[in-house]
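Quick note —
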Amino acid sequence: MSKVIAVVNQKGGVGKTTTCFNLGIGLAREGKKVLLIDGDPQASLTICTGNRNTDDLKVTLGKIMHNIVNEVDFENGYGIIHHEEGVDILPSNIELATMEIFLVNTMCREFVLKQYIERIRDNYDYILIDGGPSLGMLTINILSCADDVLVPVSPEYLSVSGLYQLIQTIRRIRKQLNTKLNISGILITKVDGRTNDAKIISSLLRENYNSVVGVYETVIPACVKATETPSRGISIFKHDPKGAATEAYTALTKEVLQHEAEK
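Predicted structure written out below.
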């Protein structure tokens, strides 16, 4: 049975894309068949995987969703790109931004992406979807088709301040649109252990949310090497095999697999 994981936070700059990409590669390194879906019109995940000229892509998530709404038939592998590190990618570009408006007048608009996921999910062990920095209709589509939500949060006041709203949104979607939706946990990212603020906020996150939605034991450190990977189109595993961020994403991968094994 495949697992669909949404990597979501309406706050930008918290490491959603980096986490989605490196967790996906980590799962592939453990022998899992993985599809990464870029659910953000800014196409950060697409760029991180080495597809820099996003405007030149003929088939993206936006095109797929348009086809589903208009009942245009296509093969399940349509638009999927294979990455050298063993994962598949369904890319995105600015075309996806038009879907936010287009979906407003679409019947069953919350479930367009789910229709696609149901077609291809048996081809993969894990499908990871990188959400954009909003709580709009695209994010609702992502949450409506996901099994689990992984919430990256950096230990900064502005990042943490919107967390309650996000959790409430997820709970409403679970009640009204997707009863199987589960928050797998909050992942603390971009941690600079030298600062008191990072230590204090990380501690408060665990104190306030661990019993509510869960907080991953793994912590992702702030790391210059991790910021270099998007320009190279490779994961932290390949760019810095022995670095601290690589160790952290290896630990996160094992923690995700362990959570699944315990269910």
